[in-house]
Amino acid sequence: MAKTFELLKPEIEELIANRQWTELRELLVELPEPDISDTIERLSERDRIVVLRLLPREMLAKVFSYLEDRAQKNLLQAFTAEEARMVLAGLSPDDRAEFLQALPGQAIQKLLNLLTPEDRRETLQLLGYPEESVGRLMTPDYVAVRPEWTVEEALAHVRLKGKDSETINVIYVTDARWKLVGVLGLRRLILASPSERIGGIMEESVIRITAFEDREKAVQLISRYDITALPVVDASGILLGIVTVDDLIDVAEEEVTEDFQKSAAVAPLKTSYRESSVLSLYGKRVAWLASLLGISVVTTGILSAQADTLNSAIALAFFIPLLIGTGGNTGNQSATLMIRALATGDIREGQWLGALLREIGIGLLLGVTMGLASWVLGFFKGDARIAMIVSLAMISIVIVSSLLGVVLPVVLQRFRVDPAVASNPLIASVMDILGLLIYFSIAQAVLSA
Fold it and tell me: Mean pLDDT throughout 136-145?
C-alpha cells in the first residue's frame, strides 16, 4: 500500500503544477478516504489545502477525520471560516469532540461558534465527560423507536431518520422518557409482519454501558458479546448515544500502543511517534530513567555493603549478572502474562489468588531447573559451597520473581493504577535489589556454617 501512495504523490503534484483541477478531482474521488488522507499527508501544506478544497463536500470531512492531529490543526488554521465550519459540521459528533479536546480553550470556543446551535450543544455535551470515558466516544446519532409502534410505523421512522444515523443495523427501543427498554436488529424488523408491535419482537435483554465508564470497558463488552454497537445510558437507564465497533477498534489500538509504551518505561505519547518532537520524547523517557537510576543506586549500595563477603569468596562475583538477569527475565515473563490477562478480562478481581498459587508451582519448577544448571556452573567455577550458594539463590530468586510478576500488577490495579506500569524495566530493577539480598543472605549463611 505504501508503494501506491508513492505512485500517487508525483501524479498529484504534476496535476497541481499543471493546474489540471478536473483531472485531479476525478482521480481523488475514485480513492477510499483513508488512502486520500495518507496521500495528502505526504504533500506540502500548500498542496494539501488545494487537494482538500477540490474534494466533494461529502468526502471532505471524512478525509479530514483520518488525518493526524498536527495536520488537522495546521489545515484548519489555513481554512477560511466557511471551510472550517463545513469541515466541523461534516464530522460525526464523536470525531468532532475528539478533535476539539486537544485544542486550547480559546481555539475550542472560536470553532464552536462556527457550528449550528444543535451541533454546538451535542459537542459541548460530549466534551463534558472525562477524557477516557465512553461519553467522549459516543455519538448521539442513532435510530430509536417506541415499543407500542407497529413494524410499519417503525420502518417509516427508520427511512426518515436512518440517513443521519451512525448505523441502522441495530434499532433501539425506548419509552416516552427515552429509557432504553429493548433492542431490535434490522433484519428482524424487515422480516416481521407490518402489523406486529415492536414490543412483541424486540429483545428486552440489552448489553449497555454508562457514559462515565472507561472506554476500555466498552472494548471488552463489544468483544465479549460480538456486537457492532453498544448503547450508552445514564444512571437512570436513559439512552444518551451509542458507541460503534469502528470507534472501539481505534480505542483498542491506542490502548495496546499505550501499554507497549508503559511496558518499556515510557510515559504514553499524546501523539504519534512520527509527530512527537525530540523534546517531548525526551520528557516522556527521562523521568522513568531517572526513577530507575534511583533504584539502581540501592543495588550499588548492597554490593558495597557486601564487599567482605565477595572478598572471602571472589567466585561469588562471577554469578551476580547471571542471577539478577534471570530474576528480571522471569519476573518480566510473569508480569507480561498477568498484565495481558488483566487487560483482556482473562483474570478478574477475586481470581488472582488462583493465579498466584499457579505461579508458585511454575516458579518452583523453573527454579529447580535453573538451580540444577546453576549448580553445575558453580561447581566448575568454584567449589561445592559456591555451587550450593548459586543453586539455592537461583531457585529462590526465580520463585520470588515469578510471584512479584503476578502480585505487582494486581496491587497496582487495586490502587487504580494501570497494571502496565509494572513494566519490564521496573520489574528488572526491583529484582536486582531483591536478587542481591537473597544471594548474599544465602552466601553468608553457607560460608559461616
Answer: 88
Per-residue pLDDT of 102-139, as tens digits, reads 777 667 767 877 888 788 778 878 888 888 889 888 88
According to DSSP, residue 210 is labeled: E
The residues, ordered by sequence, that sit 6+ positions from 330 with a Cβ below 8 Å of its Cβ are: 363, 366, 397, 398, 401, 402, 405, 431
Backbone angles phi, psi at 203, to 5 degrees: -95, 125
Q: How far apart are CA 302 and CA 400, in angstroms?
A: 18
For residues 403 and 236, what is the distance between their CA atoms, to the nearest angstrom? 43
Most distant CA atoms of the chain, gap in Å: 94
Which pTM was predicted?
0.59
Contact (Cβ atoms closer than 8 angstroms) between residue 327 and residue 397: yes
Phi, psi of 232 (to 5 degrees): -110, 125
User: What SS3 state is found at 183?
Assistant: strand
Long-range contact pairs involving 378-381 (C-beta distance under 8 Å, separation at least 24): 378/315, 378/319, 381/315, 381/318, 381/319
Element (H or E) spanning 142, and its range?
A: none
Closest-CA residue to 142 (of 241, 219, 63, 47) = 241
211, burial (CB in 10 Å: exposed 0-12, middle 13-18, buried 19+)? buried
Please, are residues 181 and 194 in contact by the beta-carbon 8 Å criterion? no
User: Cell numbers of 385, please?
Assistant: 559451597
Q: Which grid cell sits at 59?
A: 468526502
- Residue labelled with grid coordinates 490502548: 255
**Which percentage of the chain shows pLDDT scores above 90?**
21
What's the half-sphere exposure (Cβ side, CA atoms, 13 Å) at 231? 28
